Amino acid sequence: MRKSLICFLVLFYFKPAFTQQFTLSTNTYTQTAYVGINNQISCTVEGVNSKIIVLSTSNGEIIKEEGQFIYRPLKTGDSKISVHLEKNGKLKKVGERVIMVREFPKPRITIGGSTEKEISKSALLAQNGIGCHYVIPGLGFDFTCSIDSFSVTALRDSSALFHVKCKGNKFSEELIELLRKTKEGDIILVSGIIYKSPDQTGKKGDPIEYIIK
Fold first, then answer.
1. Which of these, 104, 71, 112, 101, lies nearest to 196 by C-alpha position?
2. pLDDT over 80 (residue 83)
3. d(CA 58, CA 43)
4. Is pLDDT of 134 > 90?
5. Phi first, then psi: what are they for 43, rounded to 5°?
6. How far is CA 185 from each of CA 3, 156, 188, 190, rounded to the nearest angstrom?
7. Could you tell me which residues are beta bridge partners of residue 154?
8. What is the pTM of this model?
9. What are phi and psi of 121, to 5 degrees?
């Protein structure tokens, strides 16, 4: 099921060279939208009912849902958002704003949430798989994402002890048994990671590496 993940834009108060003042605002400070997710925008126009406010863009689409605007950009770069008022079937332009659209950042992939380079054997065996988590400062949210598959390779003195492929984010029983045979100094390399981005597209994650201490 497609997840609708919400990202917030911060567009500060703006007084255009038009007859009415307007704002586009949310609860964060970044003036950034991201490709591949739903970006939520709030807009107010001085002395106007929100029902007649219409937003349009030069990049992607903007959909109005219950007084909020969902922005879905198609590509990165500068993106113009125009504010209009709809009266008697006609649109009157109030103003416009240019924002930056960026690629959605890669998630943080870890074993047991640890970002350290070393992990104890007991801590490694206590985990049942790998985690995939988005942490995006300034956007007001973080969330997990699903993993389709990954591989684990153990190295000792530059030689491979084993290489095991796993489906989903869980360690297979075969992998757990092999991990029990590892020892201090062995390197655990997790690679071939395929995760689902917010728009449910399969993406390749960066490999992660741990040294057993």
1. 104
2. yes
3. 17
4. no
5. -135, 135
6. 40, 7, 10, 16
7. 162, 188
8. 0.70
9. -65, -40
